[in-house]
Write a structure and sequence with these properties.
The structure holds two protein chains of two kinds. By secondary structure, chain A is an alpha+beta fold. Helices cover about 60% and strands about 10% of the residues of chain A. The chains are: A alpha+beta, B alpha+beta.
Amino acid sequence: MHIFKNTNYDFLRWRWQALAVSWIIILAGIYVIATKGIPKGVEFAGGTVVITQFEQQTSVQQVRDALDRNYPGGGQNVVVQSYGAAAERMVMVRVHSAGAEAGQSLSGTKDTVVTALQKAGIGGFRVVGTEIVGPTVGAELTSKGIWATVLSLVGILIYLAFRFQFSFGVGAVVATIHDLLITLAFLAFFRYDMSLNVIAAILTMTGFSTNDTIVIFDRIRENLRSMRRDSMEHVINVSVNQTLGRTVITSGTALLTALALFFFGGEVLHGFAFTMVVGIITGTYSSVFIAAATVSFWRGSAPTRAAAHAPSMPAAQPPAPQQPTRKTKAQRKARAS
Amino acid sequence: MANIRWKLITIVVVFVVFAGVGVYPILAARKGIQSPGWLMDKQLKLGLDLKGGVHLELRVQTDDALRLETDTETERLREELTKRNIAFTNLVAPDVTHFRVEGVPPAQDAAFRAAANEVSANFDRAPGSNGTYVFTMKPNIQQQLRDEAVVQARETLERRVNELGVTEPSISQQGTDQILVQLPGVTDVERAKAIMGSPGLLELKIVERQAATREELLVNGQVPAGMEIVPGAGGTGNAATTTYYLVRKVAAVTGRDLRNARPSLDENNQPAVSFTLSNEGGRKFGNVTGENMGRQLAIILDGRVQSAPAIQGRITTDGRITGSFTNEEVNNLSLILRSGALPAKLDYLSERTIGPSLGADSIRSGATASIVGLLLIVVFMLIYYRFSGINAVVALIFNLVILLGLMAYIGAVMTLPGIAGFVLTMGIGVDSNVLIFERIKEEMEAGRSARQSINAGFSRVFWTLFDTHIAALISAAFLFNFGTGPIRGFAVTLALGLASNLFTSIFVSKTLFELELSTRGHGATLSI
């Protein structure tokens, strides 16, 4: 089977339109973040989460009413959600505060929530999980998360600059930053909580979104040696077309597993899986439209001869002859299938 | 042919070893098959988020250790100055790293310097006006004391947790002054916290006077030099009945002189804690009790006088702490005293408990996602690459088996994000096969034979794969550095998955192609 056989799309022609679409999404994301903020999970914002399992079916509304009546200051600062499968009868209560950090008082808010629920008499329940985070941890995690992402990007830039040319490193990192912003925008649109798992997914995405880019860059480097008379733009277009099939398939397989996680991985991994799904899709798009275009922009469209001093691949063999025009009947048939 | 045989033997051996370490113990444990202990010991460990348990982040208030040092030196200087008859008007410690002497007469300046040199080697001395000297703790000593406090706190917590009987606890330092405690299987957080966070500082001090209020004990509105006021535990915590004690600041003996502590009963058959002092402690205690016959001895626990019995006779090694304790309190207290005092107070920064049922839910959904992910990939590869798809699927399963085996072997912990890493490894692992297969297709279309195409496919793609794997490893490394607990589990799973994928997608997959070609003649075609 073969998808995208001997295609000849002029990807670079569409780079400005692609860039415009990306900017619209990113600006919309910035607007949402600026107006509504990034919803932060309890690890970052601090606070108290209590997960309770009721003996009888208890609705979220019942729990909310119970807290309205019995929680000091009413239930307006309390988030109540059902948790996990309905059959488990679990309800998550989240309060944006925790007890003081000094000594043993951190769990004070949790105790208040549990007492409020007990007083309400809405049936027996057990506390099956709690998460209580003071302000120190949240502040530290935020700065650590930002640093980890920035350093990871710098690490990739240095590695690619070392293995390819600097312009390729720039292209890959610009594409990755693009993916990061798009993913953040989608997280903001869909109001996913920024949690440790989501940060993990974002960092993973920065590593993997360069994969497709590296495949395309490798092909550009290979083609630069055989297509010395052609313009950089042409070489890039040919390379993107030649690798289009594998770009789509490799992202497709990764997407399949990310979707499996999204639909079957359970409550805790939901944000993680969503981030991966968005990251994989935008990663594919950006390797084609952003990474390659950035290289082209950085290098200009001068003939490639001047730039053909690319460091040679170790163990590289003479490139395969380029035969984009010679099509057999069998190949045409395959294309149709 | 011989070459292929050796490669196949290598692959089979690797598979059997990793399956034995990584997969067999899991299945054996589930099905209840009796297996040798050395094999089961290596079983893949589950993280707290899957097994259930308590996860606590604590901060050591290292200032306490500095305050103790400053207070001790202040008192030593006071004693030394009194002994040498050097006059001063005031001696105070305004904060944790400084103390100040005021009003040393100019005539005694040289004598003062000599005395100060004797006692305060850890402090820098700066003279001020009117016979004032400010002592500042040396920065390296400050650092050393802080570091020691964190290490001691960690060790004390380890002893306490071990006494609690938790299996496979994990207590580690993170950052400069934080300690991460993971207690798998523990559900009684409050008891665990009470035992870990209790300072456990036992001091026995001679009582000078006692009174109903703090004010009555003051002399000229001040606490007398070398003394301190300690509140009593006050029966059942009723503030109205609290007694205050004026005691000597220097303790006769402390918890450090303890050899053992155990629950017992007092003369009224109420729960109490009996303790035994070490030989050195017993000697000190004997001297103090001998000299202070008839006076009261305050038994102070964490800054509260539990009881203040009169000294009836010389006591050397054995004593008893009485108060209004419950049986559980007595058990906890003996445990805490046995494991030693914390060098500083602890703050709880975060607390996470996962009930076993939540963990089981996570394992279930993780397993479902893994199976669905695997099926999707297998079906896709078989449809798209036909016979070569089998090659990719074999390589993929190899990859997963090696990954589980590696994790079990190095004792890595499987967490819920780790399962996510496992599922992603499937989707990303086959990418290597896809890249190789696509290249082979391309080479065949360029008119090369199957054998040439396979060789070219693998050698050309190798460096691409190398680069993509390194890039992914770079982000996994930063992820490991950033995260704790579950996230680290994810980073480890991801990194090991990348490493084993490089082996399976290149070595295993190529050997399978060679095997396929060797069974057929020259000019064979490839189903790809």
